[in-house]
Amino acid sequence: MNSQRGHSRNLQPFSTALKAWPEFKILNTLIQRPNASVADAVQQICNLTRTAAASNKPGSLDLHTWHTFCSLIEVARSTAPVRQAKLIEWVVQLAKVTMMDEATDEPLRSEQFVIWKDLPALGFTAVDE
Length: 129
Fold this sequence. Notes:
Shape: globular
Distance between the termini: 19 Å
Strand content: under 5%
Oligomer: single chain
Strand order of the largest sheet: 1-2
Helix content: 55-70%
Structural class: mainly alpha
Radius of gyration: 15 Å
């Protein structure tokens, strides 16, 4: 039991940082505001994706996809199952999106996965959680 309490304390700074991420704020708003739309939340994530791609910072797309799915898991964890329908629909709709590199007209990728069609980072993020 003591090790679990210590583990929770170690995660507290991560949880605080996660709640400041724009990806978390988008998904949390989707759940907290009854009039928030799945389509708007998908579009907002796509806007963040374009920003990350345009930054040309190494790893920015990988970090963004990881932030997105850590946020999804955290919001789902703190939301009653009967209220998670919008999160499920958001994942379904996001998987229909293929983000394109505006310079090359090729799909954007995180690792080897196409953003968002392949739901990059979802699998290993879920396993980590």
